[in-house]
Amino acid sequence: MSIRIALTKGRIEKKMVELLEQSGINCNKLRNKKRKLIINSNDGKYCFILAKGPDVITYLNTGTVDVGIVGSDILAEHNNEQCELLDLQSGKCQFVLASTAAFNFDRPGRKVIGTKYPAITQRYFESLGQDVEIVKIEGSVELAPLIGLADAIVDITETGTTLRENNLIVYDYLDKVSTRLVANRMALKQHTEEIFEFSDRLEKTVAANSSVQRQMEESK
Ligand code: PRP
């Protein structure tokens, strides 16, 4: 029987296809999937299910899938209840507090913060002892301070391009984010061997890539 793997669509998927191929898993079908959402690997060992990040959490929590590949941003926002097996050292980005140059962090009064991550934002401002109003936004969060919807945003940034091109400034750096491999607890008991075989394969590739990266940095 194949293990069911929920894979987050989009940026994570693209980077993961490379990592899976480096780990010796043929991804031709994943690369040419078009609009298909369920893809079986050629060797029949893996069944990939393409989903949005928050839905990967739902599938994991309901046991609909055995493992999930999802960002630590989504895991932190939804309070992960399952078993995190591996940091895949991919999809690296960081949470930031950002706004226009006109934003004054120390201004008294209740700030309005736009974000896709209300729980993380709440925890961050609670840690600062500040009571803020949070407006949940589904995408293009950078718009919020530009159109007067919010005083500032809490969002993830990878290259910094979106912030730069929209004249936004980083006021604080929060947690770092990377892609994680997570297993449903029950599935881990029932399919221990298959899940660890998959995890070990990926772990070896991640370790080899990190070692190459370190050598490149040292030779600079
Ligand atoms: C994320 C994030 C930023 C952008 C940052 O959005 O919310 O908008 O990436 O990336 P950068 O620092 O490399 O420019 P995403 O592209 O996932 O889509 P969204 O705006 O629809 O949420």
From TrEMBL:
Which molecular function GO terms apply here?
ATP binding; ATP phosphoribosyltransferase activity
Keyword RNA-binding annotated: no
What Gene Ontology cellular component terms go with this record?
Answer: cytoplasm
Q: Does the keyword Methyltransferase apply?
A: no
Which reactions does this protein catalyse? 1-(5-phospho-beta-D-ribosyl)-ATP + diphosphate = 5-phospho-alpha-D-ribose 1-diphosphate + ATP
What Pfam family does this protein match (any one)? HisG
Task: Please name the GO terms of the biological process aspect recorded for this protein, alphabetically.
Answer: L-histidine biosynthetic process
CDD domains reported in the protein's UniProt record: PBP2_HisGs
Assembly, in brief, is: Heteromultimer composed of HisG and HisZ subunits.
The name of this protein is ATP phosphoribosyltransferase
